[in-house]
Amino acid sequence: PLALGLYTVNAVYGDTITMPCRLEVPDGLMFGKWKYEMPNGSPVFIAFRSSTKKNVQYDDVPDYKDRLSLSENYTLSIRNARISDEKRFVCMLVTEDDVSEEPTIVKVFKQPSQPEILHQADFLETEKLQMLGECVARESYPEGNVTWYKNGRVLQPVDEVVVINLQKIVDKSTGLFTMTSSLQYMPTKEDANAKFSCIVTYFGPSGQKTIQSEPVVFDVHYPTEKVTIEVLSQSTTIKEGDNITLKCSGNGNPPPQEFLFYIPGEAEGIRSSDTYIMTDVRRNATGEYKCSLTDKSMMDSTTITVHYLDLQLTPSGEVTKQIGEDLPVSCTISSSRNATVFWIKDNTRMQTSPSFSSLQYQDAGNYICETTLQEVEGLKKRKTLKLIVEGKPQIKMTKKTNTNKMSKTIVCHVEGFPKPAVQWTVTGSGSIINKTEETKYVNGKFSSKIVIAPEENVTLTCIAENQLERTVTSLNVSAISIPEYDEPEDRGDDNSEKVNDQAKLIVGIVVGLLLAALVAGVVYWLYVKKSKTASKHVDKDLGNIEENKKLEENNHKSET
């Protein structure tokens, strides 16, 4: 490369400078020398090499002590290049007749350090011009230039918005430059996540180059422009007993730390942090809630509904009634929304609500009235009614001859609650019969039976007793040799009416048959009487025989 028409060597700071002597070695060369020129033009010789003795001598120049090397072809090398090495060096070849000279210009370059943004602002405030930081690039030669960037785009100076000031300081001992560029900046909200960086542009041996700093993001402070209130809840609905957490927030940076909360029923706002907690809320907490900044500006509101569910069961708890009595039952619901109500009896869901106009034993049990709000999770209420139906013992005794004609079954049908205790005795002797069988006690009813084969007529007594009363009933039983009319056993309330109808039908049939037999006997008697009158002339013995047969037949029919 040429500088002003002269040969130039570009060297990197700290490296070795190599300068060839660009003269042709003439015949009769005596020696070669290198010198450099002072700013005032005076020469300073630094190296000498004889062509005949092949020896090298270096002049006593402090700046180049132990740094020089002159080769056989008169190439001069300078180790550890310095900025002060930027000079005009001259190669001289001397003969007896002539002195030839060829100058070389040395240029030294030093890459600056990576720029850093120092003295960074702790935060930036909108609408305020303030020092953002300083971009510093050290030890550059020649001096470089510094440019600021935001989000990869150059920041151009703008009055009262972007103010850039560049300073270049040279170290006199080294000749190296330090560039410092300060940036004053007025940010906006949009700069909250902006990346600021700086780039230093410098010249090297091969031309212009750049080095970029690490980007920096600043915390931008801006005032709150909007306040928002919200309800923090794990569920979409709120019910009585829940806790409510209200959160108020502002969109400023930093966000406000204190707010005023306005609660229904409170005349003044309640000063609090950004959250306000209400525990175990009741239905009267339903209403509009507000929050604002402490200066009562920028208010926001929300409406909260506290759902509730009340259930009143009348009567409830344990209730004891007598059989046949009536019992009005009501399950009243009060709720914030339409509620679903259903009844359960003894763990079985009922199809309709219970109604008792005449209590029966089967009405006894554990009743539950339960209600829920389907849209409100966890809101459920229930109350219980334990119904006890009491009754004095009632007895009905039946008897029948068993099909084998060898024994008779006597049954004592008992109703009552609490369950009566049953005892059998033989009237007259007073002996107790212990060998009995009992059916299962269901809906206040059961039966006790005995099987006997009496040799003579007996009277049996069935005694049923509970806490309410003692009931005694007796039944006459014929000897085993005399058949008893079968009597149907009690089949419960559901079949009682059917059994009564069947009994009436049987009695009607029997009465009808008896009347028919009576009429037939009278007619037959009249017929016999006429026959006797008509046969007076018939053989008397034969007539008597026939009459006797008819009388016997008539008597037999009459018995029948």
UniProtKB/TrEMBL annotation:
Positions of transmembrane segments: 505-527
UniProt main location, coarse: membrane
GO cellular component: axon; dendrite; plasma membrane
Biological process terms in GO annotation: adaptive immune response; cell adhesion
CDD domains listed in its UniProt record: Ig, IgC1
Cellular localization per UniProt: Cell membrane; Cell projection, Axon; Cell projection, Dendrite
Keyword Transferase: no
Entry-linked Gene3D superfamilies: Immunoglobulins
UniProt KW keywords: Adaptive immunity, Cell adhesion, Cell membrane, Cell projection, Disulfide bond, Glycoprotein, Immunity, Immunoglobulin domain, Membrane, Repeat, Transmembrane, Transmembrane helix
Record keyword NADP present: no
Domain of life: Eukaryota
Domain spans labelled Ig-like: 103-212, 223-305, 324-386, 393-473
PROSITE patterns in the record: IG_LIKE
Membrane topology category: Single-pass type I membrane protein
Protein name according to UniProt: CD166 antigen
Gene that encodes it: Alcam
